[in-house]
Amino acid sequence: MPPSIRLLATVLLLAPALATAQSAPPVYGPRLEGFEYPYPVRTFAFDSQRQSLEMAYLDVAPTATANGRSVMLLHGKNFCAATWESAIEALTGAGFRVVAPDQVGFCKSDKPERYQFSFAQLAANTRALLASLGIERAAVVGHSMGGMLAARYALQYPDAVERLVLVNPIGLEDWKAEGVPWQDVDAWYAGELKTSFDSIKRYQREIYYSGQWKPEYERWVEMLAGMYAGPGRQQVAWDQALASDMVFNQPVVHEFGDIRVPTTLFIGQHDRTAIGRDRAPPELAARLGDYPALGRRAAAAIPGARLVEFDDLGHSPQVEAPARFEAALLQALEAR
Question: Rounded distance, CA 58 to CA 282, Å?
């Protein structure tokens, strides 16, 4: 066989394997090693629950004339500080200092083998981070699970919150009280171990974006899936199981009436997120995650809250329509 024909035959034989290798999602370390953030990552070292921990965060200075104000951005369970990339650029361009932490158990922060996850504990960790940076008061913006944390932070440290912005927060309904069956942490862990690029993408497309998908979402799916595919897979899954247990068992919705800081809710109307829907009876599952109704109910419960509805957006307005989200966010931060 002539060399040229032999080479062609070899290429044809290897082509399927090469294509698979090229299309395989990237693999990252347990602290998201290998995934680059858009800004320098710093770490805050502290002691909590009889162990030394590190909390990764972004601290980005204003790129325009500083207005003397700070904004803290709190990520959701399926997100990281990096997901705020576009919002950080818009905020710093408007003169704000921006701090975006990765909570303990998430993304580039430590993944402790044992930790009692609670929103109160995460709020305390976050308050200690801001204090270490000399920030006594900030506007707090929380998305998804970060919205539950932001609400707890505002309840726990009202004097440290200039204003509160909740972006499609989960926990606008108490799933356990609604009738979703409880499950133990081992069951959460078994579910987390099944997480993959395909399962994350399928869930986000169906629940977050009404069946629609854009190529720019892929990066954030790869970010999460890479940790589950990497050498720290079991520890990542365990901490996420503990976090899921926290989210399900520690509702903040019943305390909305006690929030005493100026609050704005951003609600993408196509969102259908509901933790535990897959375990709920069909009739209950069908009515959970009704964000148009939940947003209005939350706005009525929080004293003086303002509601901004995005009629054509889903769970992540800051990802789906960055320019529109950022314009609305800047307006909310300047509102009197």
Answer: 42
* CATH architecture observed for domain 37-176+251-334: 3-Layer(aba) Sandwich (3.40)
Q: What is the DSSP secondary-structure string of 75-90?
A: --TT--GGGGHHHHHH
Amino acid at 98: V
136-187 pLDDT tens trace: 999 999 999 999 999 999 999 999 999 999 999 999 999 999 999 999 999 9
State pTM to two decimals: 0.92
* CA triple 206-209-211, angle to 5 deg: 45
Distance of CA 128 to the CA centre of its chain: 20
98: Cβ–Cβ under 8 A, 6 or more apart, which residues? Answer: 58, 59, 60, 70, 71, 72, 73, 84, 88, 91, 92
* pLDDT score, position 335: 79
Q: Are 242 and 115 in contact (CB under 8 A)?
A: yes
Cα 248 to the center of its chain, rounded Å: 16
